[in-house]
Design a protein that fits this description.
alpha/beta, Rossmann fold, 2 domains, 15 helices, 40% helix
Length: 377
């Protein structure tokens, strides 16, 4: 059988896999490599995200391009996250062969409508309905300057979205987003393909824990808003301990936590510490106020943790409803928390997770599906 090559244009260097978007890219690389795919990876780099030798373990070639931050990108009619990811060297490298090209996120789609690759098989990997995501950031951010940026970005992203008609195939992380794109691009081929992730098997343990946990990248305004909501409205007058763990919690989050004797903030835990926190918690509580994409922290909690309490928007067409306890108001969440802390997490719940997660969220299964869609088209 002839070797199969695939270009992947990533919006960032995908190692370390320490936030949502790059987690999907990193574990996709590993899963495709395990299936024998020869990957030509293209990464945009900028300060704070270093080149990684680990990528060479899974990719045949790795190319790096500088992200063009600054005014020229900011004043482009294209969204800043797109216009700052352009490179003459990238398009030259793509033109050296006729292999399929996978564009990771709308961020990396600067060249998806380029006439020089008009006849190539082009895959768009969706991670969010970006204009909705940026509008939600506009609504929750506390800085007027950032609010203006997010609002303008959401308008540009909505207008730019039409470029996706040039994709030969769209691979979408949630069922709800799949339906959205099918409605807007009825002539395109669009397939549901959940995110790739760090988990190979369910490792939840039975019994009881002593605290509830919220985990996430807390420097992201959406997550900081969720943390503020939990502290001020759910854990404000109950005796249940809450641990908040994640990347770069803003100062105001720490100050708010200091006002509550039952709340602890753990900044920047490493992977092993985070998974230990998830496994030992009695309840992993996750809320969001914008329903796009797939929240990978939800998968982590279901593979690793005990009870998972969420609001409806966190589920967003994931098919994971039966594995979670759902409450959509602060009052409902308080009632459910108190009830869950009187219950043990038992083996039948773990078996149900294995059944549901292995059917839809297996990296190996989804890598095979991706290969079939791209190379057997």
């Amino acid at each position: 059988m002839s070797e199969k090559y695939l270009h992947i244009v990533a919006f960032d260097i995908p190692y370390p896999p320490n936030y949502g978007g790059v987690i999907d890219v990193w574990y996709k690389l590993k899963a495709l490599h395990a299936k024998g795919i020869k990957i030509i990876l293209h990464c945009y780099e900028y300060p704070g995200r270093e080149r990684s030798e680990k990528l060479a373990n899974y990719c045949t070639w790795v190319f790096y391009y500088p992200r063009l931050v600054g005014l020229n990108s900011a004043f482009s009619l294209k969204p800043y996250i797109v216009s700052s990811r352009r490179s003459n060297e990238l398009i030259k490298n793509l033109l050296k062969d006729d292999y399929p090209i996978l564009f990771e996120g709308l961020h990396s789609c600067y060249y998806i409508d380029d006439k020089r690759i008009k006849n190539r098989f082009k895959i768009y990997r969706e991670s969010n309905i970006e204009h909705r995501y940026y509008y939600s950031l506009f609504k929750v951010d506390k800085s007027l300057k950032k609010k203006l940026y997010f609002f303008i970005a959401s308008i540009k992203l909505k207008l730019y979205q039409k470029v996706l008609k040039n994709a030969s195939l769209m691979l979408v992380v949630s069922q709800r987003d799949t339906q959205y794109l099918k409605n807007h691009f009825p002539n395109n081929r669009i397939e549901y393909l959940p995110s790739f992730h760090a988990n190979e098997q369910v490792e939840s343990i039975t019994g009881k824990g002593t605290y509830a946990l919220y985990n996430g990248n807390i420097e992201v305004p959406e997550n900081a808003h969720a943390v503020s909501y939990l502290m001020e409205n759910v854990f404000n007058n109950i005796n249940i301990p809450l641990v908040i763990a994640g990347m770069n919690p803003p100062a105001y989050i720490r100050q708010l936590a200091d006002k509550h004797s039952n709340i602890t903030v753990i900044p920047n835990p490493d992977d092993s510490e985070m998974f230990e926190l998830i496994r030992d918690a009695h309840v992993n509580i996750l809320v969001t106020f914008q329903a796009t994409g797939l929240k990978l922290k939800l998968l982590n909690t279901l593979y690793q943790g005990r009870f998972c309490l969420v609001n409806s928007k966190m589920l967003n067409g994931t098919g994971l409803n039966e594995l979670c306890v759902v409450g959509d108001t602060a009052h409902a969440q308080k009632v459910l928390l108190k009830d869950l802390f009187h219950r043990e997490f038992k083996e039948p719940a773990i078996e149900l997770r294995k059944e549901v997660l292995n059917k839809t969220y297996s990296n190996e299964h989804n890598a095979k599906k991706l290969i079939d869609l791209v190379f057997d088209n």
